[in-house]
Amino acid sequence: MINQQDGQKGGVDQTQNFPEQVPRQVQEQQPGIEEQMDPQPVYIKEGYQGSDKLKGKVALISGGDSGIGRAVAVHFAREGADVALIYLNEHADADKTVALVEAEGRRALKLPGDVRDAAFCQQAVERTVKELGGLNVLVNNAAVQYPQDSLTDIDDEQLHKTFETNIYGYFYLARAALPHLQEGDTIINTTSVTTYRGSPTLVDYASTKGAILGMTRSLAGQLAEKGIRVNGVAPGPIWTPLIPATFPAEKVAEFGQETPMKRPGQPAEVATCFVFLASDDSSYITGQVLHPNGGEVVGG
C-alpha cells in the first residue's frame, strides 16, 4: 500500500480524520499545485486492496498529475493498469504521481501539454498507444474555473479558455482515442454537481459541465453497439489544487461546509467511482453518472 507521506509501501489514511475545515489559503495560478496545499489531499484510502480489476489495461487520464486525476491514477495502478498522465505544466506533481504509479509495479507515462490543442491530444493518444502498448480507458478530467459575479464580467478570453479546456479537450481526446478502443473498453468523463444545480458565480464552468453530460449520454448511445461504454462522474466539493487556485482564502476555509456531510470530499473518495466504471463490474452501465458529492440530492 502507498504511504501518503513518502510514496513507500506502508499505509497512512487521512480520510477519516481529515479536518472538517481547511486553513485559509490561495494559489495564484490554475490548475494549482498539490504540493502547496495544506493539508495534503488524500489520494488513496487505508485498506484499499486491488484485485486486478484493470489487469493488463492501459489508461489515459487528463489532469492526471494531481487531485482527482492523481487518485484515479494510483487506484488504477493498484488494480493492474498502466497509466499515461496528461497535465499542463505541473511537473513536480506529475513526477510524484509517476512515482506513486511505479511503486504499485505499473508503468507511467508523462504527457505535458494543453488539451485545448487538438494536435497535442492526438499526439498524446498516439504516444500512449505506442509506448504503453494500447489504450483501454480514457478519463477526461482536466478543467479550469474562474468565478465571476456577473455574466457581463465573463470576457471572451475567459469564455473561450473555459470551453476549450473543459469540453473541447474532451472531444479532442475521445475522437483521437476511438480508433484504438475495442469492445469492453471505456470512456469516463468528469462532470460536476454544478451540472444539475447550477452555480451563480460559475456560469461558464457549469455550462461546460452540462455539455459534458450531454456528450456522455450521446456518445454512450453511439458506441453501445460496439461494446464501448461511456459514463461520467459528477463530484461535489472535492479538496483538489483547483480549489485554492480558484477561490479567495475565506471561501477556501468554508469549502464543502454546505454539504450534508459538512466537509469537503477527498480525491480518494471519488477515484473508486472511476475504478468501478472502468472495470467489468459496471458492464451493464453506460450513459450514466455517479455522484460522489457529500449527500446533495440531484436529478439524473
UniProtKB/TrEMBL annotation:
SMART domains tied to this protein: PKS_KR
UniProt superkingdom: Bacteria
Domain spans labelled Ketoreductase: 57-238
InterPro entries linked to this entry: KR_dom, NAD(P)-bd_dom_sf, Sc_DH/Rdtase_CS, SDR_fam
Keyword Oxidoreductase set for record: yes
Transmembrane helix as UniProt keyword: no
Protein name: 3-oxoacyl-(Acyl-carrier-protein) reductase
Species the sequence originates in: Deinococcus proteolyticus (strain ATCC 35074 / DSM 20540 / JCM 6276 / NBRC 101906 / NCIMB 13154 / VKM Ac-1939 / CCM 2703 / MRP)
